[in-house]
Write a structure and sequence with these properties.
The chain is of the alpha+beta class and about 160 residues long. The protein is built from 4 helices and 7 strands. Helix 4 links the parallel strand 6 and strand 7.
Length: about 160
C-alpha cells in the first residue's frame, strides 16, 4: 500500500504505458517522474511531523497532480514519495515543455496541512518518447532527467 492508502498501481501503469507506446507515432508522449522530499531525503528536507501529516501531505500532492492531468494522461505512485506520469499531446515538444512548467508550478504552491502552510521541495524530470522506444528505455531516460533536475537543485523541471 502507498502512504495515501491507494494501492501501488505500477503493474497497471506499465501495462497502460505499453499500450500508449503502441499507439500511432503522431502522438507526442513524455514520461514524467515527480520526486517529493516529504520524507527528508536528498534535498535536505527535515521531514514533516507525524506519519499522519506525511500521509495527508502525500494525498494532497497526489490530488494536485490528479487535477493537472487530462483524461488521456496516466499517473501512478511508484514509491512512497515519487509519482510517474505519462503525458500525451498531439502537438510538439514545446507544448510538453510548457506542461512540465505548469505541473511544477502547481505542485510547488504551498499545501495546507494540519493548519499549517507547508512547502514541499519537488524535483521533476521528463523524457520525450523517441520513435519505437521501449518502456524500459523511456523509464531509464526519465530517471536520468530526474537526476539531472535534482543535481541542479530541483529549481526547474528537466525535459530531455
Amino acid at each position: 500500500m502507498a502512504i495515501t492508502g491507494e494501492p501501488n498501481r505500477v503493474p497497471q501503469f506499465r501495462q497502460k504505458l505499453e499500450e500508449s507506446l503502441a499507439e500511432p507515432e503522431p502522438m507526442c508522449l513524455a514520461m514524467v517522474r515527480v520526486g517529493t522530499d516529504v520524507l527528508g531525503g536528498s534535498q535536505g528536507g527535515a521531514g514533516y511531523g507525524s506519519g499522519a501529516d506525511v500521509d495527508e501531505l502525500m494525498a494532497a500532492v497526489q490530488g494536485r497532480l490528479s487535477q493537472q492531468l487530462r483524461r488521456y494522461d496516466l499517473m501512478a505512485r511508484v514509491e512512497e514519495n515519487t509519482f510517474m506520469l505519462v503525458v500525451k499531446t498531439l502537438a510538439d515538444t514545446r507544448v510538453l515543455d510548457a506542461r512540465m512548467y505548469q505541473l511544477y508550478g502547481a505542485l510547488s504552491e504551498p499545501y495546507e496541512i494540519a493548519g499549517q502552510s507547508v512547502s514541499v521541495p519537488m524535483t521533476l524530470g521528463a523524457a520525450v518518447r523517441l520513435p519505437s522506444e521501449s518502456a524500459a528505455a523511456l523509464m531509464q531516460r526519465t530517471d536520468k532527467a530526474l537526476a539531472t533536475a535534482g543535481a541542479a537543485g530541483g529549481k526547474a523541471p528537466v525535459l530531455i
